[in-house]
Amino acid sequence: MSEPAITPVDASTTSTTTTAAPAAAPVKKEKPEKAEKAKKFTLKTPKGTQDYNPEQMAIREELFDNIKTCFKRHGAVTIETPVFELKETLTGKYGEDSKLIYDLQDQGGEICSLRYDLTVPFARYVAMTRTRAIKRYHIARVYRRDNPVMTKGRFREFYQCDFDIAGEYDLMVPDAECVKLICEILDAVKITSYQIKLNHRRLLDAIFAICGVPEDNFRPICSAVDKLDKSPWSEVRKEMVEVKHLDPTVADKIQTFVALKGKPFELLEKIRSSGLCDSSKDAIAVLADLEVLFKYLRAMGVDDKVLFDLSLARGLDYYTGIIYEAVVQNESEVGSIAAGGRYDNLVGMYGSLQVPSVGFSIGIERIFSILEARAKKEGKAIKQNHTKVYVMQMDQKDLLEERLKICTSLWDAGINTEFMYKIKPNGSKQMETALKLQVPIIVLFGQDELEKNELTLKNTVENKQERIPRDQLVAKVQALMKELNL
Q1: What helix, strand, coil percent values describe the chain, rounded to 5?
Q2: Where are the alpha helices (DSSP H) in 342-484?
Q3: Looking at the domain assignment, is residue 222 inside a domain?
Q4: Does residue 417 lie in a domain region?
Q5: What is the pTM assigned to this prediction?
Q6: Phi-psi region of 109 (alpha: psi -120 to 50; beta: other; left: phi over 0)
Q7: Which of 95, 119, 293, 341 could form a disulfide with 323 if both were Cys (CB 3.0 to 4.6 A apart)?
Q8: Taking Cα atoms as reference points, which of 226, 229, 259 lies closest to residue 244?
């Protein structure tokens, strides 16, 4: 039994006489309270982020592999840059989107920010290393203090898959390859219903000049036009007039241009024949450049995927030439899943070296949202592992060493293999596990096979099996993998 707690005496009421005080009545001992109670909290990831389970990661890894294959097919090398940069490296590169940059606290006298995209760090890398020509890809996380919409693949932490060509090259050649590569990637990951909107930043500037927009207001008005894919003209016009103080008649003139869109050569001819741009030498020159681009896209067989759209603006300040955006049609309303353009002056912002560049970023999270929704709709079980062979014993005896020898021979040959971590495993449990893992090949054996120095090879894809000599295991498995295209 525990000792009774002693009731503390209040000094203000203590008697000065020597008469013994009555014994304190025993009271129930209370558990000592902690200085601070643990705060209740909900286990969750931060807003705009999420965990990915093995099934989701299987889809993502296949997606990354397909994209990397396309990048490498075009001769790209890869680089890696820090997840955070000096704040001054990122400042002044994104226009109004700069408010979405995550700033970090001062650590060691340096003010840093989480990278907003992979393009600006790439430009810093090119300037720092004085690289004059490079074709690179980079797959990494970026961070935006945005209002997330998780169901549409809009996060605060997400992956970007970037491809860029930096260097002096002939007009529109690398630009055309970038558009072609976007098409290759979307086809490879089975996004079939997409369209690539395309415009030219210098053409937009020429249009603004034709309409009477003051030159110092080009970028703010461009940022407003960029919202036309999500907002009606009435709202965009209101922002131009009431927020950015543009003359209403000038705004109305802009509408005439940004309403134009169509097939590349058809719209090009329509603009020329209408005379809308005849007053601007800049606009006429850009239209000639675009004609060259459209010819190259036609030669590459992707001009039918392109929509020449004068409302496409791309809000980022660093774009100087063609701009483009791949948009999904009739699937989950995800919207833009790839975007990019030419940025000839960005590298020069970090020093004297000017390296013209063009590139794009694939919105991996939005593509993943489409593929995940599609997989759920089809109801197909997704293979979460890369296991090609499962080794199991049919007799419930201690044959673990034999299983380890067989697995080792397959591992040493570079074949992905698994087995059950039981000394005396149950045969049906092993088979159940192998089928649940969707393993295409099972190696079975029992005492009878061991005595004859044989093994049984089961093809679960075609539900066939055969006995083979044990010393032919690796060769037989490799042949079956080739047959099953594993």
Answers
A1: 40, 20, 40
A2: 364-378, 400-412, 427-436, 447-452, 473-483
A3: yes
A4: yes
A5: 0.81
A6: left
A7: 341
A8: 226
Same domain, residue pair 131 and 226: yes
Token duo for residue 324: 């483009």
Domain span at 413: 389-483
Q: For residues 486 and 482, give the distance between their C-alpha atoms in angstroms, rounded to a whole number.
A: 6
Q: What is the CATH number of the domain that holds 253?
A: 3.30.930.10
The rounded distance, in Å, linking the Cα atoms of 230 and 327 is 12
Residues 336 and 358 in one domain: yes
**Alpha-carbon gap, residue 311 to 229, rounded angstroms:** 8
What is the count of structural domains for the chain? 2
**CATH code where residue 394 lies:** 3.40.50.800
Q: In what helix (H) or strand (E) does residue 138 lie, and over which residues does it extend?
A: strand 134-143
Task: Tell me: do 323 and 459 sit in the same domain.
Answer: no
In a domain, 40, yes or no: no
Residue 1 covered by a domain: no
Helix 473-483 vs helix 400-412: crossing angle, to nearest 10: 60
**Structure token pair of residue 404:** 């380890």
Residue pair 197/312 in contact (Cβ under 8 Å)? The answer is yes
Mean pLDDT by 10 residues, the chain (486 residues): 40 40 52 57 88 91 95 96 93 81 86 93 95 96 85 81 97 97 95 92 93 89 85 91 91 91 96 93 96 98 96 85 90 76 94 94 88 84 91 92 96 97 94 94 94 95 94 96 93
Tokens in use for 304?
Answer: 């039918």
Nearest to 319 by CA among 212, 238, 235, 198: 198
